[in-house]
Design a protein that fits this description.
This protein is of the alpha+beta class and 185 residues long. Helices cover 26% and strands 21% of the residues. The strands form 2 sheets. The chain has a 6-stranded mixed beta sheet with strand order 7-6-1-3-2-8, covered by helices on one side. Strands 4-5 form a two-stranded antiparallel sheet.
């Protein structure tokens, strides 16, 4: 047995990225479709859940989040290997896969739970998220007269969504998927 870090599983060196871009079913699905863990493209695992809400709204249910009273966003927590895929690449992919110019909605899904947000886990992620946002704004949205309204906030308390939401579109391939969850460029 050796203590050589190169022999350790990637998960020991993993990082977390947290994104909200509408219904978490579609957000999770498109990330896993393009970064399948079985193909070792950098994403190790995903979990859907709720974050960014009122601090006194603890362990919220899907029904409560959908009521809008908790102010939580439906989000996806992504464990990734930064030696395979960078945080910057994941942030840009996040922007490619939804409409970040609509406030509190994606397609027909309307409410604060469907807002566009990046929840950063450290100051390095915040710097990268802001830089990528500026780049994406200049390249893809300023030329068409639109403004990104994505929130960039420190990650707070996380609550896993109910089990039936995890990998929902893999378990229910004909389930609802917001039409904005596609590659836009």
């Amino acid at each position: 047995m050796t203590n050589d870090i190169r022999n350790l599983p990637a998960a020991l060196n993993s990082q977390i990225a947290t994104f909200a871009s509408g219904c978490f079913w579609g957000t999770e699905h498109i990330f896993l479709k393009h970064y399948p863990p079985s193909e070792k493209k950098g994403i190790i695992k995903t979990t859907v859940g709720y974050t960014g809400g009122k601090t006194d709204a603890t362990n919220p249910s899907y029904k409560l989040v959908c009521s809008g009273t908790t102010e939580h966003a439906e989000s996806v927590k992504i464990e990734f290997d930064p030696t395979i895929v960078s945080y910057a690449e994941l942030v840009e992919f996040f922007y490619r896969t939804h409409d970040p110019t609509t406030l509190d909605r994606q397609g027909g899904d309307i409410g604060t739970q469907y807002r566009s947000a990046i929840f950063t886990h450290d100051s390095g992620q915040e710097v990268i998220a802001k830089r990528v946002t500026e780049d994406v704004q200049a390249k893809h949205f300023t030329p068409i007269g639109k403004k990104i309204v994505t929130q960039i906030l420190p990650a707070g308390q996380w609550w896993d969504a109910e089990d039936y939401h995890q990998l929902y579109l893999y378990k229910n391939p004909d389930g609802y998927q917001c039409p904005t969850h596609r590659l836009h460029w």
